Design the sequence.
């Protein structure tokens, strides 16, 4: 048995474990702020004004909310594991999260966010139905349905199995499409707010929306509230179309939502429903096609003259087992004895999906004089130069490298043995 490999894995796991508190704090804050804000505003501050909007006559007791909060803390612990999993995927190059808004354009930013919401709605509907199978319900979904009369704190009231099913969606989606970091933040914010509102017990949407041919596609609070009172219907998360298409919408939903026993939705018709599905599929295909291709490592490999005009750096894969890019000092003109030879100036850069740009990111940039390495990215410019950006504590600096002259390259070849 290779104990050295086991030791390396154990050391790696220990480092990653130190990052779990951050992810737990992030998801816990998102839950407390999201669900807490909805509870404070809707269920406390506006409860009297919204009394005619209250769906149930009874108000859940504190004991129920304490149970929901306790189970939600365990669910958040599971969510933090998938946050760490996303980070690992990012570091491994399997996931791309970009931060430069111009990289993909506004249309891609909006389209990818909309697509992520649509994809989660479909994912939720079908996993939710599976969780209502008898054996799956007992082991994976019964904790959530202990709240027959839900509150905003019910939003994350899951056991570990259900929490894992919901949480894994984000890293799975990011395996297929790159996302802007702020778009992911908007998605997560939308998710917790809509979830908390859907469990608030007050119908906050205009009642006329339920029968509207377009707005009726949105799940109102009554829609999910009825699911908690009768778990065999209304499985949708954000939209009603899956329930309508699959025949799982509660027959009394429109009457309950509008207060009119004779309420009937003006149907958009079979053709329009098919067009809606086709549009969703088309959006998914368009986003996939529009997803920029990665830069090619061959574009950047070779010798580069650093910005000081005398240091030559060889850029290549960090090792044979990885696709990450590194850059090592191999020659310094006139001062080839000052101890900088072999210094890794660039570490662990990965190729990035960026429209019309050859870019490498998520790496570290060191300076010739020493000091702590900074986070950085590299862009191959149209004129052939290599722009290197390094950032620390919100401050960024740029330097531009160029290909060495033939004479400089020959000098370096003498020292490096012709590499």
Sequence:
């Amino acid at each position: 048995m290779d104990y050295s490999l086991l030791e390396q894995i154990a050391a790696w796991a220990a480092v990653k474990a130190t990052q779990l508190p951050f992810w737990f704090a992030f998801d816990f804050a998102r839950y407390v702020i999201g669900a807490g804000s909805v509870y404070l505003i809707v269920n406390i501050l506006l409860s009297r004004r919204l009394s005619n909007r209250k769906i149930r006559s009874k108000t859940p007791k504190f004991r129920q909310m304490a149970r929901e909060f306790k189970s939600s803390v365990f669910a958040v612990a599971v969510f933090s594991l998938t946050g760490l999993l996303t980070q690992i995927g990012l570091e491994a190059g399997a996931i791309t999260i970009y931060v430069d808004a111009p990289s993909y354009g506004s249309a891609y930013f909006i389209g990818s966010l909309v697509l992520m919401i649509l994809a989660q709605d479909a994912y939720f509907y079908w996993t939710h139905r599976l969780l209502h199978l008898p054996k799956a319900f007992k082991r994976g979904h019964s904790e959530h349905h202990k709240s027959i009369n839900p509150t905003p704190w019910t939003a994350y009231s899951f056991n570990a199995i259900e929490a894992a099913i919901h949480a894994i969606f984000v890293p799975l989606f990011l395996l297929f499409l790159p996302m802007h970091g702020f778009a992911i933040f908007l998605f997560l914010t939308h998710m917790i707010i809509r979830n908390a509102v859907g469990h608030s017990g007050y119908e906050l949407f205009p009642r006329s929306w339920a029968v509207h041919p377009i707005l009726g596609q949105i799940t109102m609070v009554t829609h999910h509230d009825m699911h908690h009172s009768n778990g065999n219907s209304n499985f949708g998360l954000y939209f009603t179309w899956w329930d309508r298409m699959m025949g799982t919408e509660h027959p009394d939903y429109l009457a309950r939502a509008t207060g009119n026993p004779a309420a009937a939705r003006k149907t958009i018709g079979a053709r329009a429903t098919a067009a809606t599905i086709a549009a969703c599929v088309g959006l998914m295909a368009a986003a996939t096609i529009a997803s920029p291709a990665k830069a090619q490592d061959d574009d950047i490999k070779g010798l580069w003259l650093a910005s000081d005009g005398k240091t030559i750096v060889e850029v290549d894969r960090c090792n044979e087992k990885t696709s990450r890019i590194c850059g090592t000092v191999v020659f310094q003109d006139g001062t080839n004895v000052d101890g900088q030879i072999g210094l890794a100036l660039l570490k662990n850069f990965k190729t990035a999906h960026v429209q019309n740009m050859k870019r490498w990111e998520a790496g570290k940039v060191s300076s010739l004089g020493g000091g702590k390495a900074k986070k950085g990215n590299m862009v191959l410019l149209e004129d052939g130069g290599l722009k290197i950006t390094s950032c620390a504590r919100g401050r960024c600096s740029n330097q531009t490298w160029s290909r060495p002259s033939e004479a400089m390259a020959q000098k370096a070849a003498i020292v490096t043995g012709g590499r």
Summary: The CA atoms of residues 31 and 366 lie 38 Å apart. The two ends are 37 Å apart (CA to CA). Residues 3-290 form one domain.
